[in-house]
Amino acid sequence: MTDALDDNFHVFDTTLRDGAQREGINLTVADKLTIARHLDAFGVGFIEGGWPGANPRDTEFFARARAEIDFQHAQLVAFGATRRAGTRAQDDPQVRALLDSGAPVITLVAKSHDRHVELALRTTLEENLEMVRDTVSYLRSQGRRVFVDCEHFFDGYRGNPDYAKQVVSAAHEAGADVVVLCDTNGGMLPAQVQAVVATVLADTGARLGIHAQDDTGCAVANTLAAVDAGATHVQCTANGYGERVGNANLFPVVAALELKYAKTVLPAGALAEMTRVSHAIAEVVNLTPSTHQPYVGVSAFAHKAGLHASAIKVDPDLYQHIDPERVGNTMRMLVSDMAGRASIELKGKELGIDISDDRALVARVVERVKERELEGYTYEAADASFELLLRAEAEGRARRYFRVESWRGIVETRPDGTHANEATVKLWAKGERIVATAEGNGPVNALDRALRVGLERIYPHLAGLELVDYKVRILEGRHGTESTTRVLVSTSDGRGEWATVGVGDNVIAASWEALEDAYTYGLLRAGVEPQE
Amino acid sequence: MTDALDDNFHVFDTTLRDGAQREGINLTVADKLTIARHLDAFGVGFIEGGWPGANPRDTEFFARARAEIDFQHAQLVAFGATRRAGTRAQDDPQVRALLDSGAPVITLVAKSHDRHVELALRTTLEENLEMVRDTVSYLRSQGRRVFVDCEHFFDGYRGNPDYAKQVVSAAHEAGADVVVLCDTNGGMLPAQVQAVVATVLADTGARLGIHAQDDTGCAVANTLAAVDAGATHVQCTANGYGERVGNANLFPVVAALELKYAKTVLPAGALAEMTRVSHAIAEVVNLTPSTHQPYVGVSAFAHKAGLHASAIKVDPDLYQHIDPERVGNTMRMLVSDMAGRASIELKGKELGIDISDDRALVARVVERVKERELEGYTYEAADASFELLLRAEAEGRARRYFRVESWRGIVETRPDGTHANEATVKLWAKGERIVATAEGNGPVNALDRALRVGLERIYPHLAGLELVDYKVRILEGRHGTESTTRVLVSTSDGRGEWATVGVGDNVIAASWEALEDAYTYGLLRAGVEPQE
Fold it and tell me: Boundaries of each Pyruvate carboxyltransferase domain copy (chains A, B) (predicted)?
């Protein structure tokens, strides 16, 4: 059962329907169920799951969502269209499929732009109104709550405001709980949205919602402008996924409502889960989370400028619009060649190494970071490699648990078309020369296994480490230089994760370097004494 | 010499100063000069180049920009701070460096939030006002135009509006041409910005500008809200680069002003270059252009939904808020497993292959695309691979210019620490068996060269092809499956570019597949007859 939040204001999520239109997203039913669980736990009021009947995947989703998910906060919503012209709602198989989905709430999309009625729907303006009335009434008579999405509302309103408002009134009078004004083409700006919503609200008396697309880069602001004008239902998608540029992003919209409007729209404690939920959904749709997304991006509270870094020591609140903990994010100090001494000192403290007394050391570290970043390294995303660098400078020499003599990787096609990956490493550890060979499902995996095979007898601790993420970036060579490859590796020991970086003239060489740092850091972290 | 646009409205770009604070950006002097040329050609009125004196790179930039760039539209701006407390502006070396930069315009950053004055600057409120007056007057006396950035203005205004306005008045009365209200922490929403700008304008009479950060996802809307309230100077960065989440994005701001406000803020013809300029700057800063950026992203006018695709045949203007040609972008139909028949047909037409009469063929192509996308392929970004797939289905068999028997790649460390990359391919072409070996700067490059070495004698046309871009994506394995690797390759023959995709269990295998498609397509495009 749901413990639906106050019905006076709706947070309506359409990630699974409109969000799935984003270029590059392709959701399985299992993906949709996972996302629905995240959204329900986060506490949105409504989850639009798809268009049952329009494709078998969505039909299956509704059947499984009802059977498998015990919704705590959200109500499940089925999306569909008004009945076809010249028929009756109760005879339309598409309308039937909406009822068959078992969803307690149905969103009907209706045309509200006169030219779309004539050119795309190819029916009369009056018949379109009748389609709205008939379909809404029928679904209401079947016990469903109905919302109506007025497609292309704002564009239609510009050319023919009377007709656009007639569609709103038809839906409202037929029993729709909310009539949603959609900026389907996304061309609106906040001032326009605010003016139109206010007028339509005054003229029709319908409860209004807003559905904004981000084509002008103003979807979040347009959504808030509609709320300012009296809309009490906001349609959004997680991370702003959606067709073309995308939809209004759920996370900055709810954060603005909770933190800037002081309006409770989520269950207690939900906002502090926002960063995690955003990243989890990105993971499921298999898109890299946007590093620069408001509130939840890893860069959203990252400070780079030397100017700021020195002042942040005085009072972090002077330099952040909110406390990042409120949305589950954290402040980060970035290490980069733009950073001055203050950043390096703060970063040292973050890592538990106080170097602020040793000015010469700080200067050496700044210098070393500059050199390495010129070569293509980045320490902003590779804390463990930075810590190794910092310790090497502080201790006068790098910690080494092993020394590599050489390595070799071979990739070849087998006669059956599959691939063989084999790697050999030759190394020294604790005074012993080790030669190890291993196969893997790729050349980097083979190298990783060969390194472990060779070292695990001497450092049994390595058996507990796992590579959890692997990223490759080709750094374009400009001005006649060759391109280089940068690899970032994340490794886990079950208690924590760390990231390391490697740079090389090819992906294998770069990966090898990141792996060396990853294992060195893992052993350091475990308190193992270095012994080449 | 500049042909400065109407001075009544300023488009002020700070990509080179504030934009460079973005995590992951690290600009050389050469990069900054290249970006300045792009921005000048695009037609912004002012280019803030950096902080001369604060770091040697920026000092060098100003010297070289004056010597090497013949600005057509923009004026060069140096950024710096008001003089230190308790000194005189003419004695402050930092102020001296601003004059020495030779920039005709200087932006001074001034504190306008009382707590920042006390806690970060550690001086009195009155001395801060005197620092503003003294520095502005002195620079004016030296013949420079002065803009003043009131840092943390909106946060300061909330706590102490009188003091914040005193700073504006001090700058204005001392001779600053524009006083820029900065939302430095980025926490504002448009309605707040509009109200504050309107009040400050009425109370001080100063010419006002706006500098918005994007921490609420509203920087573009905040900028436009300030313009609505009377600001006549907008500070932006290309692609919204900037610290934390970023700054107000130059491109949607100028597009909104030109297309939605019908306000001329760029030279004639500039807007149609916007997509190219955005991508070129991303290239220079070495960040992948955001595919979902408003107006200029490759997805910004891409249509995926079957629903839309069928209606777009009727009238594209019904489904786009502007004609993409106006900003130099193009409408695209996406091929994906969500696409229905209509999308595939339109895509065929785009490629010059009319398949709309053959319903069975269209169904087979839809089916094949679905299968391949499940395996990890993506045709949205790989038109050439899609065309090969489409032709294979239409012609009953794939075009083949060669058949691969096997290939092998070896990567190893040399004794001197450098890497050797060697590849061998065994293939058949025109009835001949070919064995070729080549070295390269990486394993993929070695394979590419071996393939060319083997085939160029038989297909001399291949000598003119060049790999121009190479992207690797690890597709995370979920639900217990192994991860797979997807590679996208762009190839050029000097007249055009095409993109191909390969998927495999490792990066080399995936690259190999994308290369095979790339060369097959290159030969097809050149009109070479297939002969295995």
Answer: 9-272
DSSP label at residue A288: P
Q: Are residues A360 and A498 in the same domain?
A: no
More confident residue, B273 or B469: B273
- For chain A, positions 190-209, list CB contacts with chain B under 8 A: 190-191
pLDDT higher than 80, residue A483 = no
Q: How many domains are there within chain B? A: 3
Domain shared by A63 and A147, yes or no = yes
B456 and B362 share a domain? no
A378 and chain B: CB distance < 8 Å anywhere? Answer: yes
Q: Work out the percent of chain A whose per-residue pLDDT is above 90.
A: 60
Q: Are residues B281 and B311 in the same domain?
A: no
B186 touches chain A (CB under 8 A): yes
pLDDT at A4 over 50: no
Residues A69 and A180 in one domain: yes
Length of chain B equals: 532
Mind listing the pLDDT tens digit for each residue in B85-138? 999 999 999 999 999 999 999 999 999 999 999 988 889 999 999 999 999 999
Name the band, by pLDDT with cuts 50, 70 and 90, for residue B8: very high
| CB atoms B506 and A419 under 8 Å | yes
The answer to whether residue A390 sits within a structural domain is no
As a whole-number percent, the residues of chain A with pLDDT over 70 amount to: 92
- For residue B173, tell me if it sits in a domain: yes
| Residue carrying structure tokens 């707040």 | B192
Q: Chain B, 430-459: which have a CB under 8 Å from a chain A CB?
A: 441-445
Q: Which domain holds residue B313?
A: 303-375
- CATH label of the domain that carries residue B79: 3.20.20.70
Q: Which among B246, B189, B180, B190 has a CA at the least distance from the CA of B213? A: B246
pLDDT in tens, B185-204: 999 999 999 999 999 999 99
Helix, strand, coil percentages for chain A (3-state, nearest 5): 45, 20, 35
Distance from A458 to chain B by nearest Cα, in Å? 24
**Domain co-membership, A180 together with A258:** yes
Buried/exposed code over B124-162 (b: 16+ C-beta within 10 A; e: otherwise): ebeebbbbbbbbbbbbbeeebbbbbbbbbbbbbbeebee
Q: Pinpoint the alpha helices (H) of A351-441.
A: 359-375, 383-395
Least confident segment among A8-22, A224-238, A422-436, A478-492: A478-492
Residues B219 and B368 occupy one common structural domain? no
Q: Can you tell me the distance from the alpha carbon of A400 to that of A530, in angstroms, rounded to the nearest whole number?
A: 6
Residue B347's alpha-carbon distances to A492, B174, B341, in angstroms, are 45, 61, 10
Band (pLDDT 50/70/90 cuts) for residue B336 is low
Same domain, A336 and A420: no
Cβ within 8 Å, pair A421-B305: no
**Residue B262 included in any domain:** yes
Q: What is the mean pLDDT of residues B477-492?
A: 66
Q: Which two tokens stand for residue A117?
A: 């009625």
Domain termination site, one of A257, A285, A313:
A285
First-to-final CA distance of chain A: 61
Domain contains A5: no
Report the CATH number at residue B463: 3.30.160.270
Q: Identify the top-confidence range among B116-125, B202-211, B324-333.
A: B202-211
